[in-house]
Fold:
Amino acid sequence: MGKNAKTKKDATDIINEKILAKIEEGELPWRKTWKGGYNLAINRKSKRPYALINQIMLGLPGEWAPMKYWNEIGGKVKKGEHQSIIVEYMECHGKRTVKNEEGEEVEETFKYRKPKFVGKYFHISQIEGVEPLEKDEIDMTGNEHKLPIEDVLQNYYQSEGIHVYDDDRAFYRPFDDTIHRPMKKQFKEIEEYIATLVHETAHSTGSKKRLNRTFGEKFGDEKYSKEELVAEISTVYLMGLFGISTESCFDNSAAYIQGWLKPLQNDKKMFLSAASEAKKVMDYIMKYDKIEVNI
Ligand SMILES: [Zn+2]
Structure:
């Protein structure tokens, strides 16, 4: 057996497939009524819709729960049904060296959340012995796992010494390590603002002192195009993880990715290589999802 044989797909593999499908064929299953509709995957126990990442993971609207919960409420998984996987957040502990107020280097321990994959999820159509919820029992006020992405970005900028400036355009400037972006009020939707900020933040992880990616020499060359793919795929991952993407954000991202794949001859390998870089970007930024810090 090959050492790198991959038997299990993870969330980013599934998102990649969805982006490629979107680029090739168009419409995704959940997109029609993303905002305020019932055409969503619902957590049977909390009676709330799953975050977008799990909408993508589950792929089918309606009630979902782990087998254990179905059993608790008198249900049984039908014979031969296959499980689905969702993403949950696991609390992790990390250590790093920081400078204290006196300028001395001290070791800091911190907690952060890391996505993990949890299996044995089943859709209500795969269950016998349980009736669906009434529509008014479902709580549509918010998605689960809505995480404070702006706090995470703020932690990242502060710890990494990145300055963010108001501007009319959005860009990251490697030579002085600064992010420029239009102000919140210039955007119609807050999600579009955050997606723009996340995109430029993703570029900043490519700096020599961070993940050290090669930026292109000029607009539209191969490395430039690839870096754009990395930044936008990272944006899709992070917006999904934080549960704040919307259908128009996803569509915009897919269109943007499609645009940058063109100069790369629509090379799928190039997409997957950018996607694996994007995964590193996501992990790098997620480390700043600090819950608490003890020095
Ligand atoms: Zn960009």
Notes: DSSP finds eight helices and eleven strands in the chain. Residues 1-6, 26-37 have pLDDT under 50 and may be disordered. Residues 199, 203, 228, 231 surround zinc ion (CB under 6 Å).
